[in-house]
Write a structure and sequence with these properties.
Number of helices: 13
Strand order of the largest sheet: 11-4-13-12
Shape: globular
Distance between the termini: 46 Å
Number of strands: 14
Strand content: 15-25%
Radius of gyration: 23 Å
């Protein structure tokens, strides 16, 4: 009946302390999990951490090092190299989303808000076990400790000294095991809305394209489900509709009855079987804000632009806005020394950026 289990027996005798006994059950249970990696090992371009002492005493290039690539056999900053000629992004609105890893608590409110706003279907545990999750926005969790943090930045000979024999895979295995008292980092990851998006160049039917306001857009009625875009996405944020999830008794969740379908947002279409879908940066919300300001004969003020996730974030970790408005909060955050992009060396020029996590240990 999808109502859970009665927990009243845990409150036996109205005592807040109860005696319980654990027994090992027979058989195997496969957990529905969308993340296989655990620690920071080898993921310094994905999630960046430092301590307050290093943050206060050392230059930003030491704790937020810009990735380097080779150009004409010389080491240069990755951001200075382009595969394509950049287009003019200085006119009109250009939307950016800032995510502060210091403020994110991993509560999941942004994920729920995204599901509700964008009619993202609930597919259930059995589908997630088959790697068919449908979240447009996920929260990755990483465990960090002094060992993994040191080995992340170690040279090969230092790494071999820290973890096992040279060339042994056991060293990597040890690094993927969390410490006894690990630190935890949460990182929301959605479509990065790359200005040089690798998904757009491989779509044979131009179902995914780039908008004038910075969004990477999907035309669902063009998509034929080749999934080339998902293969070419370095961030693993595109989702394929394996089934028709609404009006389908196999997925008996909120889209299968009249009352549940009343909750569906009429501003966002309900996707069908065989198409790719992903975060739209809530284009329906930004367009509604622009039209409202136009009807009232005024300019959009800072803070008026919102997405479902930034609206729902109670800790203020997510800030959304027009980066072309130099007075806006998101434009200020884009200039901070803690700012970095996910997998910056790939050269995708994302419109989502993160801020390095600073630990006060």
């Amino acid at each position: 009946m999808q109502v859970g289990i009665n927990a009243y027996s845990l409150y036996k005798g109205f005592n807040n302390v109860q005696i319980a006994k654990l027994t090992k059950d027979s058989g195997m249970h496969e957990f529905a999990c969308v993340q296989g990696q655990k620690t920071l090992m080898g993921r310094g371009d994905i999630i960046k951490e430092t301590t307050l002492e290093i943050f206060n005493t050392k230059e930003a290039k030491e704790w937020n090092e810009a990735p380097k690539v080779s150009l004409d056999h010389k080491e240069v900053n990755a951001t200075s190299v382009d595969l394509w000629t950049s287009f003019d992004r200085s006119t009109g609105h250009h939307f950016n989303l800032s995510i502060d890893l210091n403020a994110c608590t991993g509560c999941g409110a942004c994920v729920i808000a995204c599901h509700a706003e964008n009619n993202v279907p609930v597919v259930g545990k059995s589908e997630v076990r088959r790697s068919r999750d449908m979240h447009w926005l996920r929260i990755d969790r990483y465990y960090s400790s002094e060992d993994t943090f040191a080995a992340d930045n170690a040279k090969k000979e230092e790494f071999d000294g820290l973890f096992g024999e040279k060339g042994s895979l056991g060293g990597f295995g040890q690094m993927e095991e969390a410490a006894d008292n690990p630190q935890v980092s949460f990182q929301p990851v959605m479509c990065q809305h790359c200005n040089h998006a690798p998904c757009e160049t491989v779509c044979p039917v131009a179902a995914t394209s780039h908008g004038r306001q910075g969004q990477n857009q999907m035309a669902y009625n063009r998509c034929v489900g080749t999934r080339y875009c998902a293969n070419n996405c370095p961030y693993k944020v595109r989702r394929f509709n394996w089934f028709l999830y609404n009006k389908n008794s196999e997925f008996d969740y909120h889209m299968n009855d009249d009352l549940g379908r009343m909750v569906i947002n009429p501003d966002v279409n309900v996707r069908s079987r065989g198409v790719m879908e992903k975060c739209s940066m809530c284009i329906q919300m930004t367009q509604a804000t622009i039209l409202k300001a136009k009807n009232e004969g005024r300019s959009v003020v800072d803070g008026e632009f919102q997405t479902a996730c930034s609206n729902a974030c109670s800790s203020g970790a997510m800030v959304f806005g027009d980066v072309n408005d130099k007075e806006s909060r998101v434009a200020e955050l884009a200039q901070e020394e803690r700012m970095y992009h996910l997998l910056e060396h790939v050269g995708t020029k994302p419109n989502v950026f993160y801020h390095v996590k600073v630990r006060n240990t």
